[in-house]
Amino acid sequence: MPAAQLELDARAMDRPLLDGSAGHLQLLLSLMKAGDWQHAVLMLDWMQAVLGVQAANDIAISTAMLAHLNRLLEPCYKALYPKGPLGGNVLHKQPYNLGPKGFSPGFSDDSQNPGLSPEALTPRGPELEPLGYKLLEHAGVYVYRDPEVLVMLLRVLKHELLFYGGMVPPEWLLQQQANAEKILQVCKVLAEVGLPALSVNQANRALAYELWEVLELLPFHDRAEVYRQGLASCSACPPAAAAGQMAVKAFKKVKARLALPDKADKGRKDVVRANANLLSKVSHATPLQVADQVLWQAASFPNAVEPLAEVLKLPNPLTMDVLTYTALFWWGRLGRSKMKEDGANEEDWVSGVADLVGIACCNSKHNFKLHTLLPYLFDELRGGDTPAVLLLRSIIRKMTGVDGVRGFRTQRSGFRLSG
């Protein structure tokens, strides 16, 4: 099945719900054109609270908001790209080395690498103004209408987390106090703007990587909260909800073709590659909805685990991280029994989910890092949630081939958490 047959373009569902000739919209647009953003924001708040209307649905309003957002993001963006986008991001060069493929591992000598000195943590650009965050709150998913502003936003948010949020990568070997307020601010934008806007952009792999570069700076529990809020935001927004439904429909088309030939068949690789490309395209824009469907399939049909794991080699790292989060999230959502009657073994659906996530992460070409799960594992061990630890043990055993949790002591986990 050609990828062109997958209906993933949800932009047709972005229909104006407001009458552009209405008096309050005309007044709001006049305030924006006059540059009176103080009163424009007050009117946006009033429309949202009293009328229950998201004014950004109107194309003229969203165009004015995004144009001003561009102006607010431009100072920091120019500091990150002094020679323009083709000149490269200064964070991808010495001394930071934060390339698009992830953090450069291992600085051997602190004294020889200026990236490890406290002076290197001086912000490269100005902090985004509070007005910018306020406009993002009202723009929501409709930021997708200007892809340039969306990309600028994600790159500036990465700078905000690094230099104003204190979320420095471990490779810098520096201790910096985290700014909880800034981290919460950025997480809210990622959940209410980043993920919904990504879902409406049809199969944009580059945009998914831009979003992941921001998310990977956050610890796993913060990313999990972003995913939870992001799923709620997508469900509440008509264009993003439509994109999710279209992705589910496309996944079911791919699922119907997952009957793989025998391993001895020479054409098996071609079939796997074709299905992997299709599933990858579906998951780029809507990783949350696709991950949920993938796990439902693994939990309901254990014989589907192997073919699903084989075709999950190409999705981007954001999809793989969401897959892990979704598996853990199911503990609180599903009413199914997790343990068999003997009290010592997990149910078949638990084994299916653990097998799928573990094998997929192990086989992923993105070198999924095990340390993203360990903080969550330590918290669960301290809280005494035995079923959750059982699932995590199954996942880790599949990813590493080592049952390293069996002899783990809670005292040691508490020590590592406090350290």
What does it look like?
With 419 residues, the protein is mainly alpha-helical. Helix content is 60%, strand content 1%. The longest helix is centred in the N-terminal third of the chain and has 22 residues. The chain is built from 17 helices and 2 strands. A two-stranded antiparallel sheet has the order 1-2. The chain is globular.
State the share of residues found in helices, binned by percent.
Answer: 55-70%
End-to-end CA span: 52 Å
Radius of gyration: 23 Å
Proportion of β residues? under 5%
Describe the main β-sheet briefly: 2 strands, antiparallel
Low-confidence stretches: 102-115, 404-419
Major sheet strand order: 1-2
Quantity of strands, as a count: 2
Give me the secondary-structure category.
Answer: mainly alpha
| Assembly context of the chains | single chain
Number of helices: 17
Shape: globular
Overall residue-averaged pLDDT value: 76
Order of helices and strands: HHHEEHHHHHHHHHHHHHH
Topology of this protein?
Layout: H1 23-34, H2 37-51, H3 59-80, E1 98-99, E2 102-103, H4 130-139, H5 147-164, H6 180-200, H7 205-215, H8 220-236, H9 238-255, H10 268-285, H11 287-300, H12 305-311, H13 317-333, H14 348-363, H15 374-383, H16 386-400, H17 410-418
Antiparallel strand pairs: 1-2
Which descriptors apply to this entry?
419 residues; mainly alpha; two-stranded antiparallel sheet; 2 strands
Describe the structure concisely for a colleague.
This protein has 419 residues and is mainly alpha-helical. It has helices at residues 23-34, 37-51, 59-80, 130-139, 147-164, 180-200, 205-215, 220-236, 238-255, 268-285, 287-300, 305-311, 317-333, 348-363, 374-383, 386-400, 410-418, and strands at residues 98-99, 102-103.
